[in-house]
Amino acid sequence: MNDLTLAQQFSLVGLNGQDSLHGTVVKKAALRCVAAAVVLEAWLEGIFVQEGERFVLDLSKTEAFCEEPYRQLVMKTLLPKGKKAELSWWIRKASGLSKRKLTRLEHAITAPLRKQWLIEDIPGLLGCDLYLHSSGVEIKEYRTDNQTFTRITESVRAEVLEEGSITDETICMLWLLRESGCMHDLFSQNEMQTIAEKMGNLYRSHPLARQLYRLQIRRGFELAYKQFLKFKRRAVQTVTGSGINFLFPALERSQSVFIEMEAWFSNPERRLKDIKNRLESQGHEFTVLREGQIPLIKIDNVVYEAIPHAIYGRVPIHGVRLLPRRPF
Amino acid sequence: MSRQRSIEVILASEYVSIGELVRITGTRYSTLKFYTEEGMLPFEQAEENLTRRFHREATVKRIQRIKQMKAEGLSIPQMKELLAKER
User: Fold this and answer.
1) pLDDT tens, residue by residue, A35-54
2) Which of A8, A25, A152, B20 has the fewest CB atoms within 10 Å, counting from its CB?
3) Is the CB of B51 less than 8 angstroms away from the CB of A163?
4) SS3 for B18?
5) Which candidate from A3, A154, A164 shows the least CB-CB separation from B29?
6) ipTM score of the complex?
């Protein structure tokens, strides 16, 4: 068990389940946060020194810090203009790296993690969907090693939700999770209130939190997109779940996956068996958490509800729709 | 406020926090919290400082024992009974 750096820990959480072949909006947000995490890593390792209320880069220590390729990529790109700039400038600039640089950063950060078997490329879960599966479209996504993912996310949860002091790494991690939109994957609504309070207290009492928590690296366009998705989710709520998926599955393909069954009106056991066959044929890790009419399944690191569903085209197709159930 | 302790330091120290237990055992926080609240994981708590401290070696052994009992299919009351006898 090795100690991972902040940027490595965050990329294992932020990139888990993201498309590894294409630059999606969600992945770009995560990569911008990875770039900001590199700057925060520098802060944690004492590369930034406090001058009154400001944190300024200490140039004598940058060489040693930039040995890792992913650190070099971010710090060296910004160094010419950032010699006298303070921490917030560095974070803003790092998170605004060009698309090309972000792609290079993605390769630089994932390559050593791949070597340690902490992250891997697997066929995307969306590729298990009836339409994509039968048309042979290739979708790949990142999957973080299950145990490492649990260690990182649960230790953050433990530190924030437990009484007592919070470490600098967790202060940074909370901000990164907030900016990348991962917060809702890890914490329930009730827990979010506790976290909001804690972040408020930290903002008032901790110098790093005071600098960091007022920064926003989200883009206006992405914020609008997120608001639209939120609106869509709220638009339809049914007894069995919420989401527009129930009415217009075609609109919300990124959220749910449809897997057709071999038999009509099949029972829960046979349904589970069919899902298992499809997912295992695509190389996914599959654990049944709860059996029954609507089983709860853990696929890779995310928990899904398998709701019996039918698609009505020329011929009705019976199957199961996998809906993400968050937080687990 | 301080930096997180490295794994080497945690593995060399006598007492650990619940977050550090998560890091060294890979068990979920909510699970450890539940075990603690059920009295299955003993801890020390100073009056002023609200952070719970767990004796590292004994607690890690206890968590492994609980996992083993869970694999054997024992229920929580049965586990508690067995742990009380073993104490």
Assistant:
1) 999 999 998 988 888 777 67
2) A25
3) yes
4) helix
5) A154
6) 0.89
